[in-house]
Design goal:
homopentamer; 281 residues; alpha+beta; Alpha-Beta Plaits; 8-stranded antiparallel β-barrel; 10 helices; 9 strands; 38% helix
């Protein structure tokens, strides 16, 4: 096992330090076009007007709406970033109480929290603690760990509680790290995982400026271990970046992917326009 | 095979002693918000009033209600702890007869019983019986086993028939032990399983106070071997605990997980409030 | 291959003798409680009254009804044992023609026939035929095989055409024998399979009196190779028996399981009571 | 790779000659019994009468109807053998235009063409061409291949464009050849595949007279590589034949099976009777 | 790892140059025949007439309609080739706003872009850059790569933005390259992948004239890595080509296939005819 001594040398503690930020909900919704078509213009205006008190404040509260391609994610995806699960649940309840929701049915969803895995700091800290003879999960260990976490939490505030990027396109997918009978991410030593994540991060950095990536963790909350949102003004960037990463060891060997969905940003203020069949530009 | 002699040494009996307690049903339910919105306030009150005789006694009979995040577990999860499968079935029938159930449809469910696996006692007892030359499943073996079980059943009464923890958040997931072509939990010697479970338990103990875990067994009753409920006042604890455990040998190599769902406790007395769109605080 | 000579010694014929008995259909049905609640007591009585000519004779014709826990098997499971597939299909048609079936929708089903695998007799017979120099599938072989089958068919009539046990609880699940890339039941020599099945049977025999097991074969008829019904007056027996068997080589390595469902017997004469929300005692 | 030279000896061309015949569509349909029950006898007669011009010619145009056991294949399966995909599509459109189709909804389907794999002729021909120094896919190779195909096509006309057997029972299932990481049918040399198929065929021949088998190929058309229809007057024959074959190397190691469904033949002329709840004898 | 030095020799950069062209949407739609049958001829004409302004321009804007066999892809598949995801989304919205869409429900869909993988040019270029001592992802590397891409983009314009072939039949399927624990496409050196793709392409070229193939990439957009459309005037060509390719190393070992669907071209101008039940010839 990764956490037990091997020969003379002891393995480092296997669990990387991990920071959490905003609570995130992806709602993928089918729109009942048939029912909507049956409504006269005045009735549509009434539905939208009565729903406005819930809809209008959404965007400034960090909700983004996307018009989705294909049918797998329904017609509309809402991404909500909030400060807590309670706030996420409340926005679900608020939306469910609007008359617009008579025209909406849930197709998929994803519950997660913004996550930063501190592989580099972890290896550095664990090595130093080991050299100082401090054992994992002792009070001294915990104190040092908490201090590092606190420092990083402060330094990375902006990335832990990000604004949703304004980019026109979004690609979302969930993923796991493989736990196969032969190839198992969770039994690799932390230094090896750190090495692979580092190489992986280098690819990401080359794409900075063209695409924003927000990783959210969903262990304990949803079907996969992580959710990934990519935001870009050119949707081909999603394909190129992910394809390039697929040849990277950590993805080639240890990544398992769920469904990918792609959509076009629709400012909430233009939802009415979208529901008249016009894709906002 | 694990149960046949190897060289001079005989393997211990492979099946751990296991205690069962409360019968448990998880009901995950979609709420028909559209239909509910069509009801005038008076009609809603009538529905709730006519359903009250079934709903009100639920909580004291060990039923907890949760407002679920995302759509996978529907809108509402009820966890029922009862003394028997008959009592579980009766509560299902009682709920199905309320007018509120016109607004409810089943999405998922899980049937199980509270379970305590006595790996440590098992290995100790089986070793001692083996040393005394007592063979498995002989009358003398059975007598000793039954005596140990009885003692433990008495000592662990509180954990076998627990009250549902009052914590604000719940995370539920089903799991299996892997029976792969190479890595197979069920062919490991019991001492090796005991060793791994023991390390696993040590992680759990470090989290005591922050999270309550109730393991239920579902072999013979539902699609997975076990169901796990975690209860905590901070939902991030679910993610941190499960992530840490994932690096532990028994989880890293031998655990297969189903869907994870997460929800916010809603006292049954405040269900009406929830159905008005207000998340109880 | 298992059936070709290895060195000087020839392998035994790999296919075990197998007897078939009753044709069996499991119907798992969701009950439309909402629609039922809309019916006045008189209307319900009429529905039940008009359905009675089909329902009443069911039990004596070897149909058992169960009120199912959770939602996976719907609300109701009917197990029909009949003499032929035609008789099974006719009971399906008869039920579909009752007014009660307006309140019922199919959720799952399983088609199979009672099966007894004669591993012990097979090995004994095949060995003796081999010693006498009789080759598989020659007329002489076929004659001897048919004679053994006939004898066993007569001796096991009661088990081939059983009455449905009166026990209060049922657990049903389908299963396959593994055909993995490494571990493949169907390429094991018949003597090895017989050895494993024999050990497996010994566990079953220790549970006799507490649980009745009926194995049905579904190769060619349904999605899995076998269906297993367990009948007991204490549902915990299902869990304990199956858990114990899971450590047995033939299950640990070679068994793949489908969904498990569990229910409470409801005499057909008390179906009306059940539909009023009272679980028959 | 199977198609590249190994040492001094060159491998035979790996793709077996394959003949195609009738285009085949399996339609599995749920019947809306509730809606049907609401129709008065006169209305039912009208529905059937108006649908008769489409239904009556079906059987002589090589369509067979089956009343299916269990719910997985719905209530009714239609197997259509036609001369082309256009003719199959036209029969779908014709049926969809009948008033009877208001009571029918699609559950499953399968699109394929009758196929005969000429493993024996292929190996013989490829070996002879190799000995004559003729390379695969050269004009001379193609000429010889086409000549063999043409001869076989003529000789096997009856099997390529068969009438649907009159047997009372049908069993249908789709299947693939395994392409596992270790065991991969498509990387075996053609001689080895031919050897296994030959042994497989010998089992089939022993069952001739008791069961008719029609293999259809669906690569490029549907989810699996092949569909298999078995026709017999005793449904137990399906189980016995498939079980016996499962011990045969090509099935034990290289076959992956989809869902099996089983049904009882219902002459189209007796559909009305079936819809009155009487299984035709 | 494929991208790190091995002994004295350095591996080539693993990611092949890849060009993208048209944005593509496959919409698979069930037609509500029952609802349609309820419409009088005049009402049908009105529905079609009011939908005509959206439907009529479709074909010249590179949309093709197909009447699908079986039920898996619904009744109708529309393939849209457009210049951007925005244009694809707009056509979805336009169609959803027609009265004809009251009779249509989405069954499946696929989002992708036309893709050409330049394995040969990549290996040639990367080798030459390596010999000149130019490292991957340096400005000089990027300049050379961009120059090659630009040249190829120009040369292959016709294949990147193709017209939809006029052929009568289409076969569509999604696929992945295997990332198994043993066999993993993404860890093969690029020269080995190029070698296999080259052999694969040779099969394709032998079928030129009989079938047109359009490969679209969907990494980041949909559930599989690629979508493949085959167009031919004889549907058996699909089966023969794909079957032959299945014995080719790159498919035999490294291809994972999703569902295959097959359909018959229906010019948009003849949709009305199709909806009257006549398959256009």
């Amino acid at each position: 096992m990764a956490s037990s001594p091997r020969g003379a040398e002891r393995a480092l503690y296997p669990v990387p330090l991990t920071l959490e930020g905003s609570s995130v909900l992806h709602q993928m919704l089918r729109f009942r076009w048939s029912e909507w078509r049956k409504c006269a213009p005045a009735a549509r205006r009434e539905v939208l007007g009565q729903s406005a008190p819930v809809l209008q404040p959404l965007e400034s509260a960090q909700t983004a709406a996307y018009s989705m391609l294909g049918h797998k994610a329904g017609d509309l995806m809402l991404i909500h970033f909030r400060d807590s699960f309670d706030a996420l649940k409340q926005v679900e309840l608020d939306l469910a109480s609007t008359p617009l929701w008579d025209f909406v049915e849930p197709v998929r969803s994803y519950v997660s929290v913004v996550e930063l895995g501190l592989y580099e700091s972890s290896v550095k800290l664990f090595r130093s603690l080991q050299e100082r003879g401090i054992d994992p999960n002792t009070p001294e260990w915990n104190k040092e760990v908490e201090a590092t976490m606190e420092r990083q939490r402060e330094a990375m505030k902006g990335r832990l509680y990000p604004e949703i990027p304004k980019a026109r396109y979004v690609s979302f997918y969930p993923m796991d790290r493989r736990r196969g009978e032969e190839k198992n991410w969770y039994t690799l030593p932390i230094e090896e995982r750190q090495r692979q994540m580092d190489l992986h991060g280098m690819i990401g950095r080359r794409w900075a400026g063209k695409v924003r990536q927000i990783i959210t963790g969903s262990i304990g909350f949803d079907d996969w271990e992580w959710g990934v949102d990519l935001f870009a003004d050119d949707p081909l960037v999603f394909k190129r970046l992910i394809y390039e990463m697929r040849f990277d060891e950590v993805s080639a060997v240890y990544a398992l992917f769920g469904s990918f969905v792609v959509g076009v940003r629709c400012p909430v203020s233009q939802l009415g326009e979208l529901l008249e069949g016009k894709l906002p530009r």
